[in-house]
Amino acid sequence: MTDYRIRAGEVNEDQITASLEQFSTRFPSSIYLGAAIAAIVGSLSLKIAKRDRDALFVGQWAAPFLLLGIYNKMVKQHGSDAATKHSEGI
Q1: Which spans in 1-90 are helix H?
Q2: Alpha-carbon Rg of the chain, whole angstroms?
Q3: CA–CA separation, 24 vs 40, rounded Å?
Q4: Distance CA 59, CA 44 (A)
Q5: pLDDT at 85 over 70
Q6: Which of 16, 51, 67, 69 has the fewest C-beta atoms lying within 10 Å of its C-beta?
Q7: C-alpha angle with apex 82: 29 to 67, nearest 5 degrees?
Q8: Comparing C-alpha atoms, which of 35, 16, 37 is closest to residue 27?
Q9: How far apart are the first and last CA of the chain?
Q10: How many CB atoms lie within 10 A of CB 32?
Q11: pTM here?
């Protein structure tokens, strides 16, 4: 059976990804959690104001904010480009 898994260092990230990660890691993870909570509260407020479509639209922002927070945390802990980390001796 052939093993198709990618191992650390086999694929390099591009410079756009690296620059975005460098920028996004400056933000604490609690910012993303706060944004998700704000989206939930905003959605609830819009629902109370009988603006159902707007409430649904804003409420759907919570999941992407949480996913961005998870991605941010993973990049801070593990990095994204193992080849660069190993070549720099980190």
Answers
A1: 15-24, 29-48, 52-59, 62-78, 82-88
A2: 18
A3: 22
A4: 8
A5: no
A6: 16
A7: 30
A8: 35
A9: 34
A10: 21
A11: 0.70
Contact 63, 15 (CB under 8 A): no
- Is 4 strand, coil or helix? coil
Q: What is the rounded CA–CA span in Å between residue 36 and residue 62?
A: 4
Q: With CA atoms as reference, report the closest residue to 32 among 71, 75, 74.
A: 71
Contact assessment for residue 65 and residue 43, using Cβ atoms and an 8 Å cutoff: no
The answer to whether residues 43 and 59 touch, using CB atoms and an 8 Å cutoff, is yes
| pLDDT tens-digit readout, 34-61 | 999 999 999 999 999 999 999 999 999 9
Q: In whole angstroms, how far apart are CA 80 and each of 16, 53, 74? A: 12, 37, 8
Q: Residue holding tokens 């996913």?
A: 67
The two three-digit tokens of residue 8, written as one number: 């650390």
Tokens of 29: 């993870």
